[in-house]
Amino acid sequence: MANKGPAYGMSRDVQSKIEKKYDDELEDRLVEWIVAQCGAAVGRPERGRLGFQVWLKNGIVLSRLVNSLYPDGSKPVKIPDAPPTMVFKQMEQIAQFLKAAEDYGVGKTDIFQTVDLFEAKDMAAVQRTLMALGSLAVTKNDGNYHGDPNWFMKKAQEHKREFTESQLKEGKNIIGLQMGSNKGASQAGMSYGRPRQIIS
Length: 200
Hints:
The chain has one domain (11-151): Orthogonal Bundle (Actin-binding Protein, T-fimbrin, domain 1). The protein is flat. It is 46% helix and 0% strand. The mean pLDDT is 81. It has helices spanning 9-20, 24-38, 49-56, 60-68, 87-104, 114-118, 123-140, 165-172. The chain has 200 residues and is mainly α. The protein starts with 8 loop residues before the first helix and ends in a 28-residue tail after the last helix.
């Protein structure tokens, strides 16, 4: 946004650490998924962090990606006919993607900030958001995910258990090990070193 000069000292160190978190292999997998999910019309980026950033920067590819995870007729992000050229419109498109991703189920801690992508501040955070979105899509298994399911880890799902009233009552009669009973075990006969010598 604002013209910024090069970073020096601690700022440069912090930025270089952030840039080292970017994963080129993960980029390849994410590009394959986005192309499989949205179709070849989205194109492919140049290899590398900067090419990936330029590909996603205007928010159109991201918007198409999140829309493809919903059934027809319920697309959460409105995509303009012509890609936005003005900066605030592009950032607004990215913000719409982020809102739709959060509504889809991506946790707030996994969501990147708009400037992370737009100014390439933290492209690793963008990768984390896309990974979280892909994991949710695979986990939901609602037929809207396209691509190899092995590209993403399935999220843990709730396995709720139901107990009858009699089972709950039986549980009250059992003494847990945390309550001090260990089937008759005690500390009798145990020694912890020599007793303290008191010399007067």
